[in-house]
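Bumping with the actual sequence this time:
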Amino acid sequence: MARTSNIALLLMLYHVFCTAEMPEEPLCTEVIAGKDYDCEGLGLQELPDSVPDSTEILDFSFNSLFAIYHFTFSRLDKLEYLDLARSGIAWIYDDAFSNNTRLTTVVLTGNSIVYIAESAFLGATSLQHLYLQKTFISDLWLIPMKSLSNLETLHLGSNYITSIQLPDDTPVTKLKTLNLELNHISRITVENSNTFKHTDNLTLILKGNNIEYIEPNSFNSSNLHCLDLTGSAWNVDLSSVLKGLNGLRADSLRIGTFNDMNVDKDVSPSDMNCLCNLTTKELSLQYQTFSDDQKTFPCLAKIEKLDFTFTDLPRFPGLSKDNLLKELLLNHNQFSSLCSISSETYPLITHLHIARNMKTLDLGDGCLKSLTGLVYLDLSQNIFMHPICCSSSFMGLASLRFLNMSSGNQLTLQNPALPDTNKTEVLDFSYSPLRIDKAFSPFSNLADLKVLNLSNSYVDASNRQVFKGLENLVFLNMEKSLFQNGVLANDNLFATTLKLETLILAKCKLREIEGQAIKKLKQLKHIDLSGNNLTVFNTNLFANLTFMSLNYAFNYITTIPIDFLRNISNENTINLSHNPIDCSCSNIDFLSWYKSHSNLFLDKENTVCGSPPSLVGTELYKVSLSCGTSWLKIIIFIIVAVATIILVICFIRLYKKRFYSSI
């Protein structure tokens, strides 16, 4: 009996002390109630009870599962997205996802997987995206592909795979992306590429593999959306790879390399001739270098988009006649003039990119005049030899809609800046300092212009003709423009831009906006006045406040009269952050209005008090003031008033008594 009592006592003590020391189960973060839960990095070995059965999205990465059994996630029958990255998973057993019929995405990145059962994915009939990067997989046969009939994306990058051959029973009709980048594939043969002849619109990514040989006809009759061989032929002549692509049909082919790869072999004319035996619409040759005897590119006639970024070309050799080129990227090259790009050889081009040229670029006169169909021209981040811009340089560009001249050296605009035939809709001079003669209207012929970006161009706003002719302008960025004495005056600067919807006047050192300066802009929807020296928040400046966004952040506004808030509606948004708002009783009307309309304000965390000292840094919606007159003050006031009246009466009576006694 005593022994039984001792055992009972020990059990009770164990329950009291040992169970009390057991740590509580970590709680997953609820992102969306009942649907989305984040259990990342909690060291969990099983699914916690706190995750409900209704969960659709689950982040279970960086935990300690070791294996996935048929019961691990079986109760989550509504699960659609499951992230198991770096959770120590080595084994995936039979029917691991048998009850997850809605599951579309499984992320297994960073797990050292040694075994996947044949029926592991059998129940996941909706699975479309499977990520197995850095899982130490060495053979595609390890993955039970037969049951993945709806698979669209299979990512197997950064593994030890040596062959692209898929299992014979792999259903590939719906497969859209197969990513085998950064593996150990060195050879591709006809036998191990046969599967891809049965796919349509597949993106096959093989970049970063040291491919030394592709057997001819390996991709013959293959119809791919994209074949990415970037950085895959760095140890051999490019022709060793390109000869094996004969018969390939692909929307996009990437055979460039990487910035950090030291490729000793230049691309020769014979290498480029191999491209005659395949068909592609887009070709990328980024970071390749070309031998000096490359006079032309005869095999690129059927290509619609060419990317020669970072190829160190001092000139573009040009294309054969009757080519189909529509877009050409020549960024980061060594051109000395726009006339070095043989523009006359590709008259059908609509998009041209020559950004970040590594030499001073001469715009020349009429170097692009043959490109009558050019719609998009990017010349950003260049240093131009002659600062006069740009009418003579862009003669003939009758179809130009987008011109980017941003982030360059100082330019002096001609009058007009662009040719009379120009129909540009978007013009970007941001971060390119501009000089404009005060008598000039450089944009007066751009009646179709809708977007003008002059941010950080230091435009002198004292030129009242600068925006003349821009009747259809809807977006204007004048950040860091120069206003005389910091005043936006009533002098019709925006007299012709009456369709403006967005006006950015940030960081212009403005201290005052006169009453009629922007009153005529009745279609204005967004005004950015942040980063100025304004002390007044005045809504009377605007003709139409409906659905309007007002940004007054980073100014010096302290008090706001309630009269300026009466025309604000629930459709407005206001940003008053980083202003030294006065939180004393003198500003109580605004503070009360702010609390009742806090839904209108952006960046409320940084909309704080600037005074008095006791409330500096306090968020406005947390301020509680008592500014009314107390009963004690009222009583004291009445007593003082009554006493004053009594004293006055007594003084009058005393005065009368002395007056009559003296008669």
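The tokens above came from a reply further down the thread. The radius of gyration is 37 Å.
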